[in-house]
Specification:
The protein is 14% helix and 44% strand. By secondary structure, the protein is mainly beta.
């Protein structure tokens, strides 16, 4: 499914909205909307298009299948596997296969029965609240999981058994963690108030879970029975509440957010249309972009998971209730691309650009409640000048004129990258890696002719490490 809705065409169906996008006809200037009306109608019709892309891929592997594959995959002698399966049906074929003798009873057959599912949903919309301001919204959700079991004949039971069924997969969704994007890390021990909030949230989430589970009998040190401070059921919601600046009393408890939250790209090009700036600049583009992704890496079902009275009752070695899906890790990856950026072209062929980028990667290990937080800040500056018939003002080539294009360009960047490791119930954090990088690259390009281009450049990269593990 891949529909696209062009809402501008819909707006043009209404005459009073069409006047916003069409120049006034001669003699019709007085019938145009007033300034305030234009702003209100512009906001009302700011959504210009909406696009949806949904893709689903499924597959089934049935081991021990005996019939042949003849015309179009069908064995007419056995009427197997059936038109539905050949046309893509993913209904469980095993009961029918057993009833019709399609599966071998050889006890040496050890291949796995596998069903796979991949779902990919992407949403995109373009908004233009007013002229020269364009906003692109992007949202997505992707999941990929595989069900596997050892499906075979057992002489001891005289039938087929479904042994050790497991479900494994990955989950990705566009998210919103901007509420803590600018939180500060302070002190010599690199303490983080957001991580402290995460630790405090655990007791709140634990009590919520305990009230929902009739098998949780009491409370110890502020934590409900079966939902201790290191329980995955507790850690995941507490972490998400802290790092998305949400209320731990209301945040979802499953760990699988359902609704993708839009990220954005914003670009404004209207400054060059203001008379003061129009005399100086050919164009001025101001931009901002935001990306945030929540990822569940390699989750799997637990064979020991059991329920009693409609709630989980099986426990691990720490007496915590087992989660339905065991996560190896969860992560949030956040980027401002950029937080602020401006591209300028002057009237005299000089170009300049300035960007500030910020990246934060949070990876929480569920095995030991250890958080690795990587922060990266980039400042990028560029300057360029392109000219024709360049005349050297001094030196050996004083007075010499070049007839072809000559381009000067200088790029400068300052990058700081630091990885901190936080452990639950341990004050502060340790710096595991990181460095400050300063790079600059001046470059001159001269077009000799259509076949030859001369380029002179200098590339410098200075590294100042934060730990002894790195080198300069």
């Amino acid at each position: 499914m891949n529909p696209t809705f062009n809402l501008v065409t819909l707006y043009n169906k209404f005459p009073f909205l069409k006047r916003l996008t069409s120049p006034p006809a001669k003699g019709d200037e007085d019938n145009q909307p007033s300034g305030i009306a234009k702003v209100l109608l512009g906001l009302l019709t700011s959504v210009k298009n909406v696009g949806v892309s949904y893709k689903q891929t499924e597959g089934t592997t049935l081991p021990g299948y005996l019939p042949k594959s003849n015309f179009a995959g069908e064995d007419f002698d056995y009427n197997a596997p059936g038109i539905g399966f050949l046309l893509g049906s993913q209904a469980d074929l095993r009961p029918r296969a057993i009833a019709n003798g399609w599966i071998t009873t050889d006890t040496l057959q050890n291949q796995l029965y596998i069903q796979t599912l991949q779902q990919d949903l992407h949403l995109k919309s373009s908004l233009e609240p007013f002229k020269d301001l364009k906003i692109d919204l992007i949202a997505f959700r992707t999941q990929d999981h595989s069900y596997q079991s050892n499906f075979k004949y057992l002489p001891s039971s005289g039938g087929f058994e479904n042994l050790t069924p497991t479900l494994t997969g990955d989950y990705y969704i566009s998210y919103m963690s901007i509420g803590t994007a600018f939180s500060k890390i302070s002190g010599l021990d690199n303490s983080s108030p957001i991580f402290d909030k995460f630790e405090a949230n655990r007791a709140i989430v634990s009590q919520r879970l305990g009230k929902l589970n009739p098998n949780s009998l009491s409370s110890v040190n502020g934590y409900a029975d079966g939902y201790g401070p290191n329980s995955q059921n507790v850690i995941v919601p507490a972490f998400l509440a802290a790092y998305t600046s949400r209320n731990p009393q209301t945040i979802g408890l499953s760990g699988f957010p359902d609704i993708p939250i839009p990220n954005w790209d914003i670009r404004y090009t209207g400054l060059s249309h203001i008379p003061f700036f129009a005399n100086l600049f050919e164009s001025v583009d101001i931009k901002n972009g935001y990306r945030s992704t929540y990822t569940i890496g390699n989750y799997t079902t637990l064979l020991q998971y059991q329920t009693t009275d409609g709630a989980v009752s099986s426990r691990d070695e720490n007496s915590d209730f087992l989660p339905k899906y065991q996560f190896s890790s969860i992560s949030i990856f956040e980027q401002f691309v950029p937080l602020f950026g401006v591209d300028v072209r002057f009237k005299n062929n000089i170009t300049a650009n300035l960007e500030y980028r910020q990246t934060r990667a949070l990876n929480l290990s569920l095995s030991n409640s250890q958080l690795a937080q990587q922060n990266e800040n980039d400042i990028v500056f560029g300057f360029g000048y392109k000219t024709r018939n360049f005349r050297f003002p001094f030196g050996l080539f004083n007075g010499t004129t070049l007839n072809n294009d000559l381009t000067f360009k200088v790029d400068f960047s300052l990058r700081q990258n630091k990885t901190l490791v936080y452990q639950a119930d341990v004050t502060g954090a340790q710096i595991s890696s990181g460095a400050q990088n300063i790079t600059y690259r001046p470059e001159i390009d001269y077009v000799i002719n259509q076949r030859f281009n001369l380029s002179l450049f200098y590339d410098s990269n200075i590294t100042r490490p934060f730990t002894s593990k790195c080198f300069t």
